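Extended Data, panel c. Modelled sequence:
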Amino acid sequence: MWSKAATTARPIPIFSPSQIIGLCATVFLLTFMMGIALPTLPTRACQVAMLGLMTLLSLQPGCNRQSSVNVTGVVARSGQPLAVSPTGVLQITLKPDGGDNEQFTPKTAECDKATGRFEIRDVRPGKYKIGVQQFDPSPQVDKLNGAFLPDRSKIVRDLDGKAPLTIDLAQPDASK
């Protein structure tokens, strides 16, 4: 699970209840085994030592890390890039297509103004709603009138990073 934020900052890991239960069970089991194997040491000292060891092991880089991919593609309308002024921004946002109560950190990227191409790094494979906004010329006005906001977008894709995406705003339901 990831904390909900409107920025592109790195997600903050939050341990799920099953991970916490698993960690507690492991600590208890190892503490129990240490109490039997080393009866001369006080049980409390064994518990503290094992808890410290398990905490260090669970925080090691690479532990509980899921694979990620880079997602590339192009945003267009009827096969043509959208016209974006020099002060405008064409932005794409990926939102996991889970439950509405699921916590997440959206992944966003700015599309190339001339071609509509984009790349979003470190995306967990899975099903996503894809939002597109065109802030042009002012960064506060969506020229697409919110039609493709991530929460209400009809653009849903399974992302695996293998093939580039083609997002045609004239055919938002088309899977490519």
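The longest strand covers residues 126-135. This feature is highlighted in the accompanying rendering.
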